[in-house]
Amino acid sequence: MTDEAWPWLVVGLGNPGREYAGNRHNVGFMVADLLAGRVGARFGRHKRAVAEVAEARLGFGGPKLVLVKPLTYMNLSGGPVAALAQFYKVPTTQVIAVHDELDIEFGQVRIKFGGGEGGHNGLRSMSKSLGTKDYARVRFGVGRPPGRQDPADYVLSDFGAAERKEVDFLVDRAADVVESVIVKGVEPTQNLYHGS
């Protein structure tokens, strides 16, 4: 159950720095940037956490949003997320992680609540620092690497030429999914988006 009194903490997982900006691993940052643009918010460094934060409301008089881009690199994302959850007094049931997902094919966006991390180091760090796996995840499918390419190298490479034509649309869709989770909840959002 969500509590109107507390904001939603939407965490875009990625790596800071221009050289990582277009990587598959950075779709969380891309979605966070798009959401900030939609609500007219600007990112700035937070005084209590190694992260960029943008605060806004979702629609006029809507739920409060805290958009987060941790600046600690993916494997240490949990520290800033836990610090910000504490600072804003956000229950973990109102934390949403947006991340790349190898186990979902490119072109699909999925939502789930809780569960394992599937080898994703950003999620692993978040679960450890938050002390729970009970938070929502918006999973942006990037698919498995071709041939024998190492998955770590694959997620740290940019989208291919054919994929790039669809990335903007998919980032937009992932942002829609985040907004739907906040307004409608996880299950109604699954019903809405998982069939298509």
Automatic annotation (TrEMBL):
Its main location: cytoplasm. The keyword tRNA-binding applies. The lineage of its organism: Bacteria, Bacillati, Actinomycetota, Actinomycetes, Micromonosporales. NCBIfam families: pth. GO terms for cellular component: cytoplasm. The record marks 100 as: Stabilizes the basic form of H active site to accept a proton. Catalyzes the release of premature peptidyl moieties from peptidyl-tRNA molecules trapped in stalled 50S ribosomal subunits, and thus maintains levels of free tRNAs and 50S ribosomes. It comes from the Bacteria. One of its GO terms (biological process) is protein quality control for misfolded or incompletely synthesized proteins. This is Peptidyl-tRNA hydrolase. The active site is at residue 25. PANTHER family: PEPTIDYL-TRNA HYDROLASE (PTHR17224:SF1). It is found in: Cytoplasm. Monomer. CDD domains: PTH (cd00462). SUPFAM superfamilies: Peptidyl-tRNA hydrolase-like. It catalyses: an N-acyl-L-alpha-aminoacyl-tRNA + H2O = an N-acyl-L-amino acid + a tRNA + H(+). It comes from Micromonospora jinlongensis. TRNA binds at residues 20, 73, 75, 121. Belongs to the PTH family. Keywords: Cytoplasm, Hydrolase, RNA-binding, tRNA-binding. The keyword Phosphoprotein does not apply. GO terms for molecular function: peptidyl-tRNA hydrolase activity; tRNA binding. Its EC number is 3.1.1.29.
